[in-house]
Amino acid sequence: MDEPVSITIDETLEGTRLDMLLVSRHPERSRTSIQKAIDGGCATINGEPGKSGIRLELGDEVIYNLPDELPKAPLQAEEIPLDILYEDDAILAINKPAGLVVHPAAGNQSGTLVSGLLFREPEGFASVGEDADRPGIVHRLDKDTSGVLVIARTPEAHAALKQSFQERKVDKIYLTIAQGHFKEAFDAIDAPIARDPKNRQRMAVLPDGREALTKYRVIAEEHGMSLLQVRLYTGRTHQIRVHLSHIGHPVLGDGLYGGPRKWAPFSCPRQMLHAWKLALPHPVTGERVVFTAPTPQDFRQNLEIFAQNTDLEGLAQ
Question: Domain range spanning residue 123?
Answer without folding.
Answer: 84-166
